Amino acid sequence: MTTTEQYASVRYLVDNVQAGIDFYTNHLGFTLNSSAAPAFADVVRGPLRLLLSGPASSGARATPAESAGAGRNRIHLTVDDLDAEIARLRAAGLSFHSDLVAGPGGRQILLADPAGNLVELFQPA
């Protein structure tokens, strides 16, 4: 197992920790690292440790009310075949929050977790 010093950790505030665990592990290839649901869990994918903080967690309680909603920041996950990922996730009943965008660096699309936090799926050019 990777030690915590080898992870880049990002905290996402979620309404329902178990729904977040299910979304990230079932659809995006994360592994459950630890859980104290319904307050908190963390899931891992490669060097990314995603902290899922429910309303009862200390991380969520420390957030000012005006900052509690999902923001414009997002985690960025690189995929080998974006078209296949889009088809797989749509088949699982998920919807996207942007159109497919192409640019000089590659192609991307935005997906939201059950709490509205954004996940960018990206395929390099």
UniProtKB/TrEMBL annotation:
One of its GO terms (molecular function) is lyase activity. SUPFAM superfamilies: Glyoxalase/Bleomycin resistance protein/Dihydroxybiphenyl dioxygenase (SSF54593). Keywords: Lyase. It comes from Actinopolymorpha pittospori. PROSITE patterns: VOC. CDD domains: VOC. Signal peptide: none annotated. This is Catechol 2,3-dioxygenase-like lactoylglutathione lyase family enzyme. Transmembrane segments: none annotated. It holds the Pfam family Glyoxalase. Residues 6-124 form the VOC domain. The lineage of its organism: Bacteria, Bacillati, Actinomycetota, Actinomycetes, Propionibacteriales. InterPro entries: Anthracycline_SecMetBiosynth, Glyas_Bleomycin-R_OHBP_Dase, Glyas_Fos-R_dOase_dom, VOC_core.
